[in-house]
């Protein structure tokens, strides 16, 4: 590894991680990281991300940030689970997915149930079936929890309605222009939810063909990736990778609300402060996008589809609670979400 080992331990301590494992299987072409942030409320859960990073340090930092985010997401969502994340360094040009994901499954199995995985960026329910050949500590399987994307999108749409209620005094999204960045599974399902709600859509993706297909299906307008932040919109919905709310993008934003499905949207905490200073309502990402982890209740707790839907729809009320904490304490919304999560980590959540 090219990172500074001492700095890695410092980062783990600063962020409160319990365990970070580095795994390698040469014949399978596997290089992976499994980060367990917290098991205080229950076993750590978090998806397996297959992504080609610029360097190994970026992959490690992503694993640390995403796993911490999962701890807070589960706490705010009120489920007895902790936070973890897997990174497989690579891309979707991999030839033998079975070898790759079975290797990953063996490493997940070694953790003895402290960590339960599911799909994420670059992976799918069929990949989870391959992992399940080696371990039972996997969710999102075909015929059970399945693809979490529709649930993530439903939760984001509910969070967006809560943000609209705060910003405009009504949660009606009819005729509001929503700029969706990222036309993958979550972006697609979010577009479907928003079209049903009467919103007007703009869409963008680094894959121009994906953006075109989504725009045609949902009567949207295609915006080029370099114009996505400055595009005219009421709501900016990031549904791609993280760190996109930063020094370069904030001055370009024309939207009054930021609410989307991507994890770790703020590059740094001060960028949450800057959104607040500009009067832009920020719906904290791990509150808004908790629908995916809640859908795991089908696998982990035996929830019915109706129970999952009830929990996901309640993201609206959770987001309003976050906004109320922010208002009463005079703090930005991202800090209010952290306060709610940390309170539940101290006090626990209802066992299911």
Short account of what is shown:
The protein has 352 residues and is α/β, with parallel strands linked by helices.
Defining key terms:
alpha/beta; globular; Rossmann fold; 45% helix; 352 residues; single chain
**What share of the residues does DSSP label as strand, in percent?**
5-15%
Globally, the shape reads: globular
Radius of gyration: 19 Å
Give the total of domains: 2
Helix content: 40-55%
Number of helices: 14
Count the beta strands.
12
| Span between termini | 40 Å
Structure class: alpha/beta
SSE string, helices as H and strands as E: HEEEEHEHEHHEHEHEEEHEHHHHHH
Biggest sheet architecture: 6 strands, mixed
In CATH's first tier, which class of the largest domain applies?
Alpha Beta
What is the CATH T-level topology of the largest domain? Rossmann fold
Mean pLDDT: 94
So, CATH architecture of the largest domain? 3-Layer(aba) Sandwich
Low-confidence stretches: none
Looking at this structure, what is the CATH superfamily of the largest domain? Answer: NAD(P)-binding Rossmann-like Domain
What can you see in these coordinates?
The protein has two domains: 5-68 and 82-131, 3-Layer(aba) Sandwich (Rossmann fold), CATH 3.40.50.10860; 149-347, NAD(P)-binding Rossmann-like Domain (Rossmann fold, 3-Layer(aba) Sandwich), CATH 3.40.50. The model has no long low-confidence stretch (mean pLDDT 94). Helix 2 packs across helix 14. 45% of the residues lie in helices and 15% in strands. The chain has 352 residues and is α/β, with parallel strands linked by helices. The chain starts with a helix and ends in a 5-residue tail after the last helix. The protein has helices spanning 5-15, 56-77, 97-110, 125-131, 149-168, 185-196, 208-217, 269-277, 285-288, 291-295, 297-300, 305-313, 315-329, 333-347; strands at residues 19-25, 30-38, 44-45, 48-51, 82-89, 115-116, 177-181, 200-204, 221-222, 235-238, 257-258, 281-282. The strands form two sheets. Strands 1, 2, 3, 4, 5 and 6 form a six-stranded mixed sheet that branches. Strands 9-8-7-10-11-12 form a six-stranded parallel sheet, with helices on both faces.
